[in-house]
Structures are given as structure tokens and as C-alpha cells.
Amino acid sequence: MDEHTDQAQGNVGLNRRMLGKLLVIAVMMFGFGYALVPIYKQICELTGVNILTPKDISLKEISNSQVDLSREVTVEFDANTQGPWRFRPVVSSMKVHPGEMAQIVYEVVNKQAVKMDAQAIPSYAPQQAANYFKKMECFCFKQQTLEANEARQMPVVFYIDPAIPKDVKTITLSYTFFEVGGKTQSLAMAAQEQK
């Protein structure tokens, strides 16, 4: 009897230690998952990729800017989609003088018969250009809600800081436009279940 009692007590002790270890691991995994969002934002800010930014600068700040007429920078525009829409810039590129205000328009068409929420995330090439590309107005500042089959033109008003290094002659502004909330996937799954 004593031998079985000692073994049972030993197993209880082992089980308690294992439970304690598993609880610590579960808490650490939850903490890591919770910390991923701010870590991701920091990595994106450091690398200049997929930055969700508020307005880069206010109109008051540029009232004294000088346009550098001695040089031009070619700005190329790109559009990528993650969802059921057509998304593109109205022109593929334009030449601007540093300090000069410019505007580009992107067109988007919701090809679904349902309302969709979407967000655009900008990225720049070369990466250092992100520090000199100043957006005054941009559809990327907030989520967009597109009604069923709605077509919309969305402007980006910007200028390039005259302090941009002289060796940067071309900047690519690329937007990825993606669905927020995943309604399309939910509707597709519901449609398949009805079949």
C-alpha cells in the first residue's frame, strides 16, 4: 500500500509541475500573440513597407516650400488588389519637380453585388523615398466603403520634398487594396454550403 501511495503522490507532483509548465507556455503564447501587432507596426515603420499613415504634413507646413525647377523626378504608379474589384491608377507615371504639388487619381470598381469595406496600403521604391514622398490627401488615410457595383475615383495629392537626394530620379508609389472584414470569403462559403 505504501508503495502505491508514494507512486500516486509522485504522479500527482509530476502532473502539477507539468500543468504549471503548460500554463506558463500558454500565457507566453498569448503574450507573444498580443505583442505581434505592435511588433509588426514597428517593423513596417523601420522598413518603410505597408505603412498606414495619417496625413504626412499639413497645408500650413508647405506654404513656404520652394519648387526645384532644376530637376524632375518620375513618379510611377502601381496598383495591386486583394479582393473582388478592379483597381488602377488613371496614369502610369508623371514627372514632377521636387516641391511641386501634384495629383494622381486611382479608380476602383467593386465587382460584387454586396457592399464591401476596403483599405489601401502604400509602399515606395526605393525605400528611402518614403521619407520624401509627402501626401496631403489620400484615400489610404481611412477605410473605404464601396456599395455593390460602385465605381469611384480617389485622388492622391502629394509633393516630393526638395531635400530628396539628387540620385533619386524615379519613385514608385504602389498601393495594395484589400478587403477589410472578409465578407467575400464568408459569402463564398455560405454559397457553397447552400449547394
Automatic annotation (TrEMBL):
Similarity comment text for this entry: Belongs to the COX11/CtaG family.
Membrane topology (UniProt): Single-pass type II membrane protein
TM region positions: 22-40
Pfam family, one: CtaG_Cox11
Record function comment: Exerts its effect at some terminal stage of cytochrome c oxidase synthesis, probably by being involved in the insertion of the copper B into subunit I.
Keyword Nuclease: no
InterPro entries in the record: CtaG/Cox11_dom_sf, Cyt_c_oxidase_assmbl_CtaG
Primary localisation category: membrane
Superkingdom of this protein's organism: Bacteria
SUPFAM superfamilies: Ctag/Cox11
Record has Transmembrane as a keyword: yes
Location of the protein in the cell: Cell inner membrane
Name of this chain's protein: Cytochrome c oxidase assembly protein CtaG
PANTHER family for this protein: CYTOCHROME C OXIDASE ASSEMBLY PROTEIN COX11, MITOCHONDRIAL-RELATED, CYTOCHROME C OXIDASE ASSEMBLY PROTEIN COX11-RELATED
Keywords from the UniProt entry: Copper, Membrane, Signal-anchor, Transmembrane, Transmembrane helix
